[in-house]
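Homework-ish question, so no full write-ups if that breaks the rules, but can someone show me the predicted structure for this set?
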Amino acid sequence: MAGKTPKARRGFKSESATSVFNLVSLLTGSLYGELDERLDFRTALSRALKKPVPAHVNFWFCFGGVTFLIFLIQMVTGVALLLYYRPTVEQAFASVVHITNNVPFGWLVRGFHHWGANLIMITVMLHALRVFFHGSYKAPRDFNWVVGTLLMFALLLFGFSGYLLPWTELSYWATVVGAEIPSAVPYVGEYLTYFLKGGDQVGQLALTRFFAVHVVILPAGALVLLLLHFLMIRRLGISGPL
Amino acid sequence: MGMMTVGDMMSRDPVSVPPSCPLREAAQLMRRLRIRSLLVRDDSGFIGIMTGTDLANQVLSDEPIDGKTVSQIMTPHLLTIDLDEPLRVANEMMAAHHVRHLVVVEDGQPIGIISARDLLVPEEDVPGSIPFWPNHLLKEVVAALLTIALIVALAVLSPAPMLNQADPFTTPAHIKPEWYFLAAYQFLKFAEVFTPLGEWAPKLLGVGIMGVVVLILVFFPFIDRNRDRAPRRRPFAILFGIVCTLAFIGFTVWGHFS
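A: Not a homework solution, just the prediction itself:
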């Protein structure tokens, strides 16, 4: 494939311009075929691959990428769990038990999601520590640090909201305690706690809200922040050696 | 390294000659050193620059070259650019002033020359860099595979726990949050020490102090205006980072055992 130039392709096509070929080149075309002729993906790919990286970059610099990898694992396993999970007070616990005991490999997918949630906290903290002690948060990367800290708090909220979903003893009471924290804010605190729980008690509405936050609101927000995070570091590059 | 600076691509240690230097001598020096510009310096400091273009114009003017000195054909002022400016700015300055050489300065002192030719070097040939593919990606792939191996091992060897179903009418004896909230949890408990200030104090001060720490963390680049990145030249920020890290670990361990 790599040896074929777009020119050779055109020659081939004029000999047997079949719709089948067009269909196949639509699939392979993102790199070498029809789409590439129009959009020049090949140049973009080659520029991306040749992009220079400072030679001082070592394994400490991988924690951002590893954090993103775990984020992707959480998205895939999260969607898989979503296919079986039922977000109601009556059925949430039973559906998690069902996933664990009956769904094929359900225990494994839940295990990935559980351990991914714990590991991503470690990797994101190590990433933040590397950036901090390396002084990489300084201008011109200062706004990227702000986006990064927001992403870290988004991950903490992922953890907090996801913890309630299995509706276990500990997750219920940890939420009851945790939901009281915003009430310390002057003037609006009581309203915040009420809004979070959807009432005076942690009940069905709290579960519904935490579910919505965990599977829609936070993922959408985090994806926007991730895009900003990556676009900015792509534009500014990795900070130089100390 | 998306944003390359003038310092990355410049030629270091600019060569300078006195204004009285004969043209022939200057031209020979440029050919020997394979450079296309000379800085002109007298007792008062740098006073101008002479480039290959200046020499070519002199030849075309049909005036005899012998007896002429550098000071007669040099450009009697210097266009300077800071070491940290991106290459784009060098490009714009050259276009705006119709020149092909800029003097690179650090703290006002000339330390190099950047020429139009330096701007042509392909990005992937930057000195001190490795290509993303395959050198850097190899590291990332190794880290990714180790991560996946760790998650698989943990999920198989230590499956996600299944606790008892929630019962709003029975409060369990020990409720502790997940480990990453233990530090905050323990700090809120620690805030009980503010009770002598009043009933309101523990909760408000506990949450308030944490809120302030979070705000400092988020906006840290705008608080720490020191541009130096070397740890030895920013002792305060490094100390702050170590104290915060140790406090987080300390409160987490305390929360675990309390």
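Now go work out the reasoning yourself. Hint: The longest helix of chain A spans residues 204-236.
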